[in-house]
Amino acid sequence: MRFCLPYSGRCREQPPTAAPALAAQGVVVRYPGGARAALDGLDWVVPPGARVALVGPNGAGKSTLLKAIAGLLPIAAGSLRVFGAPVGAFRHRVAYLAQRGELDWNFPISVRRLVLTGRYPHLGWLRWPTRADWRLADEALARLHLLDLAERQIGELSGGQQQRALLARALAQEADLLLLDEPLNAVDAATREVVSAVLRDLQRQGKTVIVATHDLDRLQADFDDALFLMDGQVVARGVGAVGERVHRAWLDNHRAAVAV
Amino acid sequence: MNILDWFLAPFQYNFMRTAALAGVLVSLTCASLGAYVVLRRMAFIGDALAHTVLPGLVIAYLNRWNMTIGAVLAGIATALGIGWLSRRREVREDTAIGILFTGMFALGILLMSSVRSFRDFTHMLFGYIVGVTDAQLRLFALIALVVLVVLMLLHKELELTSFDPTHAEVIGLRPDRLRDVLLVLMALAVVGAIQAVGVVLTSALLIVPAAAAAMLTRRLAPMMVFASVIAVLATLVGLLASYHLDVSSGATIVLTCIVCFLAAWGLRTLREQLSRTRRASRA
């Protein structure tokens, strides 16, 4: 059995069981000092290989949920299991694409090396990337049409290219669960197309993808399932017309509330 | 006097050879770490570390302990204190550091003023690189070795946590712990720099060569190499200039670094100008 040198001592080889990619039960997440819970009693099961959307207005808890799954936020109550194990057990299998603002794009590093950092959970302490790691990084760059820009400093890329570079890193990581926080927010049409195609490929390979999004129009085309969040609670599920109608209703309510 | 003599004659003295060697070790240490100090915007912390080492130096001096060891201990204590303070959120980080650093510095001055002889303390404040002893030299060599080896072994982790702490955390790294490592390395580097250029100018050795290197490259590893080369050259030239002109060595070394920075800045501006005209002529 291949042993994965851990960064935190908790990254182990994958278990044989076909556990759900994500199983949330009564999950509560609070921000320190926050009056109400950012996520309040969330129940959700995502089967492996699904492509699901998290929909809701700003502040609904979409990012909070993704961060909790990624292990960036502790849960205050309930249980959250990724591939059948507690959060943090399979760090190399989970990739998280934060919104672009969470990275220092002025840092002197090339696009290729940024993508290579996706290999780090497989390397661990004291091991240098091997030729195979560089090759995987290049393959990921090629899939996102970034190979020509590989030697650029990351800040020289456009917003859409930066988003693609982050997705390339997730591919290089060979993660089984991808968490994407508004990947198509304010990007060019070319990026939209490439990203959608890659997400379809990922599903074909049996990867699970959870995407936080505002975009209702592509819901039925791009996703198997959707979870509608509002004020930290689930208000509707499914890509069908029901969820959409509910969501549009809140958006209208929300707008009305803001207008008043 | 010919130019070769200008460079070589001073080194017939033992103290100059020791000083030059010490300068090389210290500038190598500071400059390679300096890349992180500049990129992670830790310049203020570097300055603070240098100042907080003062009471450690003075207490060691008063008790006739090894002063360099006193400085190392005080530096590490401060480094960990800053790490701890910045993890708690009651006080903003720069405010917390400001309180810690002025407080420790004032304590150092207070202790200093309780002793009659001020001469040794002037050396602490403004540096006395020609006074480096063989024991200190060995310690500086050890510090340089430790800092460079740790920077090399943890390169990918330090690099990653510097520009993308979120991804680092998702894959199981602890960005705050790696920051503590950097702070301890900075504390070690600062101890040597104090001997070379003094408490007041120490942060210059951390910041200026790295800032100059940042003008010349857009990659981290070359930036560290360029910064080291610039720092070593500036230290040697500064040391020689101070010998010939009979002025403060610390100040001369720092000013030589600044000249290098200005030159690098000019070079970059020139290069940008050139590529712009080339692009314009192509269009």
Automatic annotation (TrEMBL), chain A:
Keyword set includes ATP-binding: yes
Domain ABC transporter: 22-256
CDD domains given in the database record: ABC_Metallic_Cations
GO molecular function: ATP binding; ATP hydrolysis activity
TM region(s), chain numbering: none
A Pfam family this chain is assigned to: ABC_tran
Keywords: ATP-binding, Nucleotide-binding, Transport
UniProt entry tagged with the keyword Nucleotide-binding: yes
Protein family according to the UniProt entry: Belongs to the ABC transporter superfamily.
Protein name from the UniProt record: ABC transporter ATP-binding protein
Organism: Candidatus Thermofonsia Clade 3 bacterium
Lineage of the organism: Bacteria, Bacillati, Chloroflexota, Candidatus Thermofontia, Candidatus Thermofonsia Clade 3
